[in-house]
Amino acid sequence: MSPKGSAPEKSSGAKQESKHDKQWLLSVYQEMCYYRRFEERVLQAYTQQKFAGFCHVHIGQEALCVGVQRALRDHDYMVTGYRSHTQAIAKGIPGRQVFAELFGRVTGCAKGNGGSMHMFSKDKRFLGGHGIVGGQVPLAAGVGFAINYEKKDDIVVCYIGDAATNQGQFHEALNMAATWNLPVLTIIENNRYGMGTDIKRTTSIDHLWKRALAYDMDHGQVDAMNVIKTHEFVSNVVANMRKTKRPYLLDAICYRYKGHSVSDPGLYRTKEEMTDWISKDPISQLGEYLKKNKMASDEELKALDTKGKEMAKADEAWADEQPIPPDEQAWQNVYAD
Amino acid sequence: MAILTYREALGRAMSEEMARDPKIFLMGEEVAQYNGAYKVSKGLLDKFGPERVIDSPISEGGFAGLGVGAAMVGLRPIIEMMTWNFGIQGFDQIINHAAKMLYMSAGQFSVPIVFRGPNGAAHMLAAQHSQTVEGMLHQVPGLKVVTSSCPADGYGLLKSAIRDNNPVIFLESEMMYAMKGEVPDEEHLIPLGVGSIKREGQHVTLIAWTKMVSRAMQCAEQLAAEGIECEVIDPRCLRPLDEELIFNSIRKTHRCVIIEEAYQAASVGSYISEQIHRICFDDLDAPVLRVTNEFVPMPYAENLEHLVLPEIERIIPAIKQVLYMD
């Protein structure tokens, strides 16, 4: 059985035909490099004990974040889980405000109230990083409900991890979204591990898109190590959703290179598995494609990466200089006026 | 003034508010076509249509969360829990999401939502349908917790709860839905955080809410025949709590019994008692006593249920004890 709309296929970015022009592809390459460098700096800062708490990074999963964001309109909504730094940046929150939030500074995107797991921007329609696995799926249903209620044509993207598909609230929310035709695009960032537990050990089905079958929901699977495929696939899904108003479940196959959080050494994975996935690295794949199609040289790609590195460095440097929240902030925003 | 039942008063509050503000919708199990499990939403589907009065699946966590998400982007949901015992399924959304969203987002996302439904024991519903939740929920910063003990208060407080920009837990009671009382004909709002003196007296203060208010009133009546004048205070809102109203009464009577359909530990009553002992210590002529549920799950058999709930047989001796009459 294969999902509606797409057949799972092995990554082969270099052979792929693309409608995307050179400038677009170079900017995608640069953006992915920036996110990787950003998260590397985050990890380094954490290791240097510049901040504490939980810290989950996205290294290896850049193609999904960028491919999805570029298929959306600015006006679309997004809600996500606790691995949210680069999704927040992609949705429009300046990286320096994300870094400042990690450092618990008052100029962070949640003024230091949220931290790594709780990035927010009302202005950018980024409805949070959330720390309760699967708890954001009903929130997305509510946003979809409100979009229909107000007769708008926005959609809401809801990112979840693979293991969230075993939460009751995920099923409750999918059922409501399907029953009432709520414009919710639920994207499973399927990196195959719920913390340190292989999804196969906890889940009765082999492909997570099959969860949609129970709700007669449109669904598909995409190779989310490949940004071009991801972008094309999601663009089609989104265009269709705006017409049909039907929700969609996307099983996005990807891999996180680092542990679940900084404290996780990842002993539950084999070296071979890691090496195999890293050979499909989203940034390298696009780089190879660009070179093969004579759109960029090694030097040009290196320059784009260097730019990303510098941007991340500047974000951290800015955050370093920011003030901590004033004491009175502890008592503010408990209740709205 | 019209005489309305408690359920009619709540229904009127929702109806008026929905007519006033098109962003308000009502969702819950059986609220629309069935007209409400307890008929609180009777007639609302006809009046406002299926876009605004929505029968949910039996998914309390799911539709509680749907309400929170809708509130984050500008709607004003009323989420009905058929009973708060089922509402416990939605506690993740209420406690982890609704209550904390404004704070986590540093003021960016408010959650104007009312979660309402019946709370506490009715009659022989046994352990899974007889719990009160105010003790658990008043401990959560970000939530407001509102009760009412008569139709007029239910009407005025529900309207204010709907207009509030925070998540409000609105606790009703199956045993009160048929209760009749006068409700003002003209629109009338009761601010959240303002309690009410239900009976004035100078000898002892009784503090109670929801259906325990009528227990307190019965006790007061019975004791009046013995020359004991009880002051009955209904705080109505448990968060925010009208502490001044309570303290002023204690300063007058110097004695207090708290009657509460909850367990003794870490409850609203234990908090009120602690506040009285701390703030009014020098005014007290006796330690505050509390009459609560026995610390057992609710039994089914009528005689056993009666033993577990704070009934008059246990309240009167407590009142006499603080008056040193026993």
What keyword list fits this structure?
heterodimer, A: 337 residues, alpha/beta, Rossmann fold, six-stranded parallel sheet, 10 helices, 11% strand, B: 326 residues, seven-stranded mixed sheet, five-stranded mixed sheet, globular
Tally the structural domains of chain B.
2
**Which runs of chain A of at least 5 residues are low in confidence (pLDDT < 50)?**
5-16
CATH homologous superfamily heading of the largest domain in chain B: Thiamin diphosphate (ThDP)-binding fold, Pyr/PP domains
Termini separation of chain A: 53 Å
Through-space gap between termini of chain B? 43 Å
Order of strands side by side in the largest beta sheet of chain A?
2-1-3-4-8-7
User: Order of strands across the biggest sheet of chain B?
Assistant: 3-2-4-5-7-6-12
Tell me which oligomeric state these chains represent.
heterodimer
Indicate the mean pLDDT of chain A: 93
Biggest beta sheet summary of chain A: 6 strands, parallel
Relative helix content of chain A = 25-40%
In CATH terms, what is the architecture of the domain at 54-282 in chain A? 3-Layer(aba) Sandwich
CATH H level, superfamily name of the domain at 54-282 in chain A: Thiamin diphosphate (ThDP)-binding fold, Pyr/PP domains
The coarse overall form of chain B would be globular
